[in-house]
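Teaching assistant here, posting this on the class forum so everyone can see the example we discussed in section. The complex has two components, and the goal was to see what a joint structure prediction looks like when all of them are supplied at once.
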Amino acid sequence: MSHSETALSFSGKSDLDLLFDFLRFRSVSTKPDHAPEMRACADWVAALLRHGGFQAEVAETGGHPAVLGRGPEAPGKPTVLVYGHYDVQPEEPVNLWTSPPFEPAIRNKRVFARGATDNKGQILAHILGAIHLLREEGSLPVNLIFLIEGEEEVGSTNLDDFIRARRSELRCDVIAISDTGMIAEGYPTLTQSLRGIAAMEVIVRGPATDLHSGIFGGAVMNPATALVRMLAGLHDAKGRIAVPGFYDDVTKPDAAEREALAALPVSESDYQRETGVLLLSGEEGFSSMERIGIRPTAEINGLTSGYQGEGTKTVLPSTASAKLTFRLVPNQKPDRALNLVEIHLQNLLPPGVEMEIIRGHGGMPYTLDLKSPWCGAALRALEATFGQKPALMREGGSIPIVQTFRDLLGSDTLLLGLAAPDCKAHAPDENFPVENFEAGIRLHQNLLRELAG
Amino acid sequence: MSHSETALSFSGKSDLDLLFDFLRFRSVSTKPDHAPEMRACADWVAALLRHGGFQAEVAETGGHPAVLGRGPEAPGKPTVLVYGHYDVQPEEPVNLWTSPPFEPAIRNKRVFARGATDNKGQILAHILGAIHLLREEGSLPVNLIFLIEGEEEVGSTNLDDFIRARRSELRCDVIAISDTGMIAEGYPTLTQSLRGIAAMEVIVRGPATDLHSGIFGGAVMNPATALVRMLAGLHDAKGRIAVPGFYDDVTKPDAAEREALAALPVSESDYQRETGVLLLSGEEGFSSMERIGIRPTAEINGLTSGYQGEGTKTVLPSTASAKLTFRLVPNQKPDRALNLVEIHLQNLLPPGVEMEIIRGHGGMPYTLDLKSPWCGAALRALEATFGQKPALMREGGSIPIVQTFRDLLGSDTLLLGLAAPDCKAHAPDENFPVENFEAGIRLHQNLLRELAG
C-alpha cells in the first residue's frame, strides 16, 4: 500500500496523525519530477475536506492543481476565504537535517519536517478547526471557502489566472491566511505588512569552454571574477543597496511607526540567537526589526561556477551564475526593481564577458488596513485564543497572493501567523510547535465566530 | 573481460591502439574512489614497458603509485630521465563533451579524450619512441629512466618524498618532459619558463543554518555577499592583483625579453580564437603572451553557495566558498603568496561572518638555463623532427616537479611540448593531433641520439 493509500483513511486518526500524513508527501513544487507527488497531496487535502463534511475539488490550473473546498451554506452570514498552500520548499541540503525531511518526528514538543510550519501545519490547523466545529455544531457560523494552492513556493505562477477564472465562486468578504510568524513564543500576532519580492538569475559567460587556468589565465576575463565584481556592487559600504533609483519608491518610515516597532517584545539578541550569527549586520541607521520589516534587501540565494568537487581543478570557468532575490517594501514594484538592477549590473559588467538575466517571479509588498472591521474581529479572536493582547508585526517575507486578492477579489487579508520565531522555514530542521498547531485549531474556531459578528 | 585485461595484451597493436587503451583508464587522481582505476592504469604502463624490453616497477608512494622504468645499461653514456604522468583532470562537466571523455574517438585527425594531451598522449610517445628504438637497434644510445607519476594533477603531493627516497636510482644528467604546448601548429617549441602555482579554498560562514531570506534577510550578513566582496578585491581596476606586496618578488621583464616574445608566431587573434572570447582582457600594459608567460594571476576556479537547482529558493545561505589558484613567476614563492592573500582577504572580511582558508598545493616558478649543453641537443632534436627552427616559449602553466628535480637531483629539465594550442587540456573535448603523437615518437628517438653526443 502506498503512502497516499494509507493516508487516505482518516477515521480514528488524531489531529497530529493527520498532520504527519500531510507532511509525508514530498510536495516540492519547484522540482518538475515531483508532479505526481504534488497531485497525490492535493487529492489527500480534498479527501480530508470531503471526509469532514465539505464540498471539495482538485482544480486544474496551468501548473500544479489547487484544492477548493466549501462548507455548508450559512445564509445571511459573511463569506470567509481561508488561503494556504500544500507545496513546500526543496529539502536540500538533506545532510543537515536531524531527522529525514519527509519523515515527521517530534522532539521537544515540536514537529520536525519540511513544510511543518510553511505551510502544512498552519493550513491544516484551519481545516481541522472547521471540521471539528462543523461536526460538533452541525453548521458553521459563516460561509467558508478553502483555497489551498500548490505553487506558493514558486511564485503562485498560475493562481492569478485561476482566481480570475473562478472569481464568482471565490467572492468573499475577508480572507484569512496563516503563513507568517508570531513575534515571540506564545505571543499572538497580526501581521500588518509583508515585503514584496523580485527574483532573477544572472549568468555571466566568457570563454567558449572551460580553459586551463595556467595556459590562458591572465589574458581572459574570468566570468567568476566578473560576477563577483558585479555582485559586490549591489551594496555600498553602509549596507544600502547601491542600485541607482532603488530607494525612489520606498516609503519613509515615520517616527510613530518606528516607536511601535521598537516596543515589540523582540530584542536584537533574539535575532542573534535565532540566526546563530556572531554579529547582526545590515543597513546603517536601522534596527534589525526595521531592516527586516520596512527596508528592502538584495540577497544572493546561490552562487555557481567552475569546479565544486573535491580538491583543486585549475580551470578558468566558461560561465558563472548567481540567483538573486530582492525584498521590496511599499511602494516598490517588482518589475521596476528588476529593471533598475539589470541596468546596474549591465553597467558593472567588465569587458570580455557577456551577461544574461533570467527573471523569476515577482510579488508586490502589502500593508493591511488597520481600520477595517475585520481587523477588530481578528484581534479579538487572537486574544481569546492566546489570552494575551496581540502584537502588530511587520513581516520580512513575501506572500504575493495577498496583493492579488486585494486586486482581484477586492478583499482584505488577515495574516494570523502561527510560526515560531525559530521555525527554520525554508531551511533544514523546519519545525512547528505542537502547541501552535493546537492553538491554530482553536484560533480558526474563534475567528469564524468573531467574523460572524 | 575487463578493460584492464583487454588492454594488457600489447602484441599486434598499433601505436594508436595503445594510446586508446591508455586513454580508456579513468585515472582521475583527485577522486578518492578512482584509486583502483589509478592502480590498473599504472600496472598497464609498467606492463607495456616490460613488454618493450624495459625493467619496470609500480612503485608505492604515500598516495597513488608511480611507475619507474629503466632501459638496458649504456655504459659511459649520459643518463636521461623522462618524466610524465598517467593521472588526468576530472572529466566534468561531462555534458559538454562531443564524445565521452573516456572513450577515445578520432575526429579531424585528432584523438579526443580526457588526458589525450595532458599527459597520456605525450608520455606514451616517449615510451613508444624508446621501445621502437630498442627493438630496431637492440640497444639505446643513453641510459634511460622513465618516471611516470599518478599525482601531477593534485600537486605531486608525494613525489618529492619518493624522489628523495629513491635519489640514487634516479640520478641523471638531464631530464626531458613533454607536458607543455607548441607555440603554433607544427612549430617546434622549447619552453624556457613555467609559472608556479599556489592554491587555496576560501570558506565564509555566517548563520548557523540556511535562513529564510524574507524572514531574516536584511539583518544578517549574507556569506555569499561577503565572499563576492572579498573576491572583488583580488584585482584593481587595471587588472593588477590588488593584494599588497604581491608583486614585490616579481622579476621585472627586460626589453630584450619582451621583444623576443613579441616576435613569436602567435597573435592576439590566435588567443582570441583559441579561447572563444569576444575580447581579450587582463593586466594593463602587457600583451596576452606576457600576461600568460611572465605575469602572475589570481583566478577563481570555482564558486559554491546556497541553492543551485532549478527555479528559485529564497534562502540566505549559511556558507559560501571559492576555489582559488594563483600563478606565480620568478621569483615569487607559493607560501609567501598565500600568506599575503590570506592577510588581504582577512582585511576584506566584513563583520558578521567568519573565514576559513584551506591551503592547497604550491609549486615554484621555473626558468630554464639556456646556456646548458643539453639545451643545444634539445633544440637540434626538435629541428630534426619538425624541419623547422624551434621557438623559445614562456609557458603559463605550472609543472612544480621541474623545480623539485633541480633541487633534489641537481638536473636541468628540457620541456619539449607537443600540445597543440587548442588542445583543451583540463576542459571538455581535450584532444591531441595524431600527427603530434607520431612526431613525439620520432622526437624521443632524435633526442636520445643528440643527448648521447
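For the discussion questions: Chain A has 14 helices and 18 strands. Chain A has a mean pLDDT of 94. Think about how each of these relates to the inputs above.
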